[in-house]
Design a protein that fits this description.
Elements (H helix, E strand, L loop, with lengths): L27 E2 L4 E6 L4 E6 L2 H5 L3 H4 L10 H10 L4 H4 L2 E7 L2 E12 L2 E8 L8 H17 L3 H16 L3 E7 L5 E8 L10 E2 L6 H9 L2 E4 L7 E4 L2 E2 L4 E2 L12 H10 L3 E9 L2 E10 L7 H24 L2 H19 L4 H8 L1 H5 L5 E6 L2 E6 L4 H12 L6 E4 L2 H4 L7 H4 L1 E8 L4 E7 L4 E6 L5 E4 L5 E4 L6 E6 L8 H23 L2 H10 L1 H32 L5 H30 L6 E5 H15 L4 E6 L5 E5 H17 L5 E9 L7 E6 L32 H11 L3 E7 L3 E7 L4
Parallel strand pairs: 26-28
Antiparallel strand pairs: 1-11, 2-3, 2-6, 3-11, 4-5, 5-6, 7-8, 7-15, 8-9, 10-14, 12-13, 14-15, 16-17, 16-20, 18-19, 19-20, 21-24, 22-23, 25-27, 28-29, 29-31, 30-31
Helix pairs in contact: 5-6, 5-9, 6-9, 10-16, 10-18, 16-18, 18-19, 19-22, 20-21, 21-22
Length: 751
């Protein structure tokens, strides 16, 4: 069998193969610089661009097979050699002065390796115009500060387009965001007032095909100073070492696809620059600069723009999380209620009957079907019973993980046209595949008008051989399309909310199907569903909370002098409240981990443990009179040393904290009784606890005083103490005389 691989180069592009165009091997460069290919280790010149006469005053034929020392001084060659062992991204550009006939020219040289050769690109520059680090700092400081202070994604995008346009002085700067189907939309723009706006316009995926998106994801900046340039061919045409076209994926001078050139010409653009925006390593969008006359942007300014792009990429995730923050927090609260309801039910369908509309709200759906082993529970507006089974059978073939979702169901499942008013959007959660347990959420059709930049349907010309030559559209005027059979798109946090239900639902199904007593006991003991929720909710809340705390702090630092006392006090209150909230979250995280982590048990000498705890407490409160008494020689117990320090540290610290006496006394001892072989007690002379509160003191967030009284607190400490003791198979309770003091009793196993 003869397997022939077609290489689709620029001269072979047509409508049927444009997505496979090998734009990384164009065989030519743009004429605003020179490209040399060097063979290591001698650095012999084996391939050159056919414009060396213009820039270096040397014919390309005279350079081939010469050593690089033909052009460069020894110290310059040493600089290149020294860069070979480093990271080119941080070393480029190298500044080179090259004698070109009767004059010496300055160049920015960009070096990188690819396919076994060293590629050296030279762009002419003016040394006196180059920026040192201080100037770079001056150029970037203001913009970086604005980026950090931006409140959301839209504000971030607006800052970046304005600052890059101010810096480069181009006619138009846009931010183009890719959609999941690889189409895109202009979400921010800064331009001359007389130019037509592209803001809000959509572009089909074919405008930036897969080959281009791949290059954007590995080479973050591309410049075209003059779209009407004449491509400069490479001599020889192929890499002499491989006899294949030279791979220019990382080249700054790489020639551009003729299709893209025609595309820009049809837009009236004469020069362009694009900067890639990545989110979690994947191409998220582009910063696109358009100019309507020839425009060369110097390397130093391009470096600053590239830097802004990378800084923006870092902030994209955070800013997206800040969008709709109040709504996300509300959904988290609602998820807590739903998980609690599910956890308390032994029957899945009955649980969802009780949950009702909450199940719809957590993902923003108008209808839902819970499917469990052939039984249905319907909530809200849903499809007919006879339509469920065929839809579900199709969905099962589509799910790769535990979730499937689409906002255009009729496109992938044509029978959905019959019920588009109910289910144009579908979100499916697979709970178990073998037993066929699924939750299906529905969204109705929402007819919407999409503003395209010209007709998105590209046209082509049929050639004699039957192929269709690509003809990029010539008009980019707003073209309206009424989109039908679509629902509102599912947001990432709604999909995550559905996934977070799975662990809770699985617990109920396992109880229902397997009836394993040990699993029920483990679930009841650890309350794993609630612990998992606490961990997830606390973890997701910490990042936006830190943002609120930091921005409030920034406001005090930057605007404190111009704020009145009332404004300063409110900001200080905001900082204090966010700190208290973070303390609560940290306590919840500790509590949730406590239910999952393994105990590292060993013999514990309680005498030594109490001494360690007492020393820490005395050092933390040097101005207080504290007496910590060991009434007896304490026994050796068996348990987790770190967690036991947490128990006694909390109890002793509470005896000091909730104590208004000048001399605070904490007594630790133990006694044997008929009922308990080893009973340890911690007694204080503090304020005591009223009898009506004794039964509730170990409950989560239970505080008996105002939030700022006695130094504040989270109300979680005694809950943690009780959970640690119970995990050790023990028991804790208390006796108290109000105004006189409290005694905590702990039953533990002696070693």
């Amino acid at each position: 069998m003869n397997n022939k691989i077609e290489i689709v180069t620029a001269d072979k592009v047509n409508l049927t193969n444009c997505d496979r165009e090998q734009i990384h091997i164009p065989g030519s460069i743009q004429p605003h610089g020179v490209l040399l290919v060097l063979k290591e280790p001698e650095l012999d010149i084996i391939q050159v661009s056919n414009n060396t006469k213009d820039w270096l005053n040397v014919l390309p034929e005279d350079l081939l097979k010469q050593n690089i020392k033909y052009l460069l001084e020894p110290q310059q060659i040493d600089s290149i050699r020294n860069s070979l062992t480093g990271d080119f991204e941080y070393l480029n550009p190298l500044k080179l002065s090259i004698k070109c006939g009767d004059e010496t020219k300055s160049f920015n040289s960009i070096v990188h390796r690819n396919n076994g050769v060293l590629i050296l690109e030279l762009e002419p520059c003016e040394i006196e115009l180059e920026q040192d680090f201080f100037q770079f700092y001056q150029l970037t400081r203001r913009t970086i500060t604005q980026i950090q202070k931006s409140a959301n994604l839209q504000e971030l995008c607006s800052i970046v387009v304005k600052e890059i346009r101010r810096l480069t002085e181009v006619d138009r700067v846009m931010i183009y965001r890719f959609h999941p189907d690889n189409s895109g939309e202009v979400i921010a723009e800064d331009k001359w007032e007389n130019l037509e706006s592209y803001l809000g316009l959509h572009y089909p995926a074919s405008d930036i095909p897969e080959s281009s998106r791949h290059l954007y994801s590995i080479n973050y900046l591309r410049i075209i100073p003059d779209i009407n340039y004449q491509p400069v061919e490479l001599l020889p045409k192929n890499n002499p070492l491989t006899n294949q076209p030279l791979d220019l994926s990382f080249s700054v001078l790489r020639s551009v696809s003729p299709i893209h050139i025609e595309y820009l010409q049809n837009m009236g653009v004469k020069a362009s620059m694009s900067i890639s925006l990545l989110k979690e390593g994947k191409l998220w969008g582009l910063i696109v600069c358009h100019h309507y006359s020839i425009k060369y942007i110097p390397y130093n300014l391009r470096t600053v723009c590239d830097f802004f792009g990378q800084v923006m990429s870092v902030h994209i995730t955070t800013k997206e999380q800040h969008d709709n923050l109040d709504y996300k927090i509300y959904l988290k609260s609602l998820q807590s209620q739903v998980i609690t309801d599910i956890s308390e039910s032994e029957n899945l369908l009955m649980a969802f009957t009780n949950i009702g509309e909450k199940l719809l709200t957590i993902v923003g759906a108008t209808g839902a079907i819970v499917y469990g082993e052939g039984e249905l529970q319907k909530i809200g507006k849903t499809i007919k019973d006879e339509e469920v089974e065929p839809l579900l059978n199709w969905v099962i073939t589509q799910i790769n993980t535990d979730v499937y979702y689409t906002d255009y169901l009729a496109k992938v499942y044509p029978p959905a046209n019959k019920f588009k008013e109910i289910a144009s959007g579908l979100l499916v959660l697979e709970i178990t595949k073998v037993k066929k347990n699924y939750v299906l959420w529905f969204r109705p059709e929402v007819s919407q008008i999409v503003n395209w930049a010209g007709n998105p349907q590209k046209h082509g010309k049929v050639e004699l051989d039957g192929s269709i030559t690509l003809l990029p559209r010539k008009s980019f005027a707003k073209w309206l399309e009424i989109v039908e059979c679509h629902s509102l798109p599912w947001q990432s946090y709604e999909i995550e909310g559905a996934q977070e239900l799975k662990s809770a639902i699985l617990g109920i199904l396992m109880s229902r199907i397997d009836k394993l007593a040990e699993i029920n006991l483990e679930l009841e003991q650890s309350n794993s569903d609630l612990d998992s929720f606490n961990y997830i909710a606390s973890h997701d809340l910490k990042e936006p909370l830190r943002g609120i705390h930091n921005y409030a702090t920034f406001l005090m630092e930057d605007y404190g002098e111009i704020l009145e006392a009332d404004g300063q006090q409110k900001l200080q209150t905001l900082v204090r409240l966010t700190q208290r909230m973070e303390d609560l979250i940290n306590a919840l995280l500790f509590l949730s981990r406590l239910g999952r982590q393994e105990l590292n048990k060993s013999p514990i000498n309680l005498n030594e443990l109490i001494e360690n705890v007492a020393e820490v407490i005395r050092m933390s409160k040097p101005n207080e009179s504290i007496e910590i008494i060991k009434k007896h020689d304490l026994p050796v117990i068996y348990g987790d040393n770190i967690l036991m320090e947490e128990v006694f540290g909390n109890l002793i610290n509470n005896g000091v904290k909730y104590n208004q006496k000048t001399h605070k006394i904490i007594e630790i001892g133990y006694k044997y009784t008929e009922e308990y072989s080893c009973l340890i007690y911690v007694k204080d002379n503090g304020i005591g606890i009223r009898e009506k509160h004794i039964d509730t003191i170990f409950k989560l967030f239970k505080r008996l005083h105002g939030k700022d009284k006695f130094g504040g607190g989270t109300g979680v400490g005694l809950t943690i103490v009780k959970k640690i003791i119970e995990r050790h198979g023990g028991k804790i309770w208390l006796e108290s005389n109000y105004g006189e003091g409290t005694t905590f009793y702990i039953k533990l196993s002696e070693y």
